[in-house]
């Protein structure tokens, strides 16, 4: 009987460790992503899972329209948004022409 009790205690301990190290952090991360996706608004600067940087121009149910370059608008699924850029990170990036000039030097 004593062996069965220690086995049950051991299983409960390992279950607790498993929960706190794997399940709980994953649920927290999933909740943060859901909050991010549900709170998207026009003008938000975002980054997609594919690495595309853009500005939200319209939220349409499960999809959103983002402007990636002057006048270039693409339609993506909301779930593909992984990050919202903060104002501090929003540094003026050089245009394609400026980058080509720097590469040629």
Strand count: 5
Strand coverage percent: 25-35%
Number of domains: 1
CA-based shape = elongated
Instruction: Using the coordinates shown, work out and report the CATH topology.
Output: SH3 type barrels
Strands side by side in the biggest sheet? 4-3-2-1-5
Helix content: 40-55%
Tell me, rounded to a whole number, the average pLDDT: 85
Which second-level CATH architecture applies?
Answer: Roll
* N-to-C span: 80 Å
Contiguous helical run count: 2
Instruction: List the helices and strands in order.
Output: HEEEEEH
For the record, what CATH class applies? Mainly Beta
Which structural class fits the helix and strand makeup? alpha+beta
- Radius of gyration (CA) equals 23 Å
Largest sheet: 5 strands, antiparallel
Low-confidence stretches: none
Structure description:
- By secondary structure, the chain is of the alpha+beta class.
- It contains 2 helices and 5 strands; from the N terminus they run αβββββα.
- It has a single domain, classed as SH3 type barrels (Roll), CATH 2.30.30.
- The chain has a 5-stranded antiparallel sheet with strand order 4-3-2-1-5.
Quick take:
The chain is of the alpha+beta class. It contains 2 helices and 5 strands, in the order H-E-E-E-E-E-H.
Strands, helices and their partners?
Blueprint: H1 2-38, E1 45-48, E2 53-60, E3 63-69, E4 72-77, E5 81-84, H2 96-104
Antiparallel strand pairs: 1-2, 1-5, 2-3, 3-4
């Amino acid at each position: 009987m004593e062996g069965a009790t220690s086995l049950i205690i051991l299983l409960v301990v390992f279950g607790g460790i498993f929960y706190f190290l794997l399940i709980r952090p994953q649920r927290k991360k999933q909740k943060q992503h859901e909050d991010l996706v549900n709170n998207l608004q026009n003008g938000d600067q975002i980054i997609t899972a594919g690495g595309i940087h853009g500005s939200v121009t319209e939220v349409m149910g499960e999809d959103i329209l983002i402007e990636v370059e002057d006048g270039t608008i693409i339609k993506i699924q909301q779930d593909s948004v992984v990050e919202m850029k903060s104002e501090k990170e929003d540094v003026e990036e050089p245009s394609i022409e400026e980058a080509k000039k720097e590469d040629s030097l």
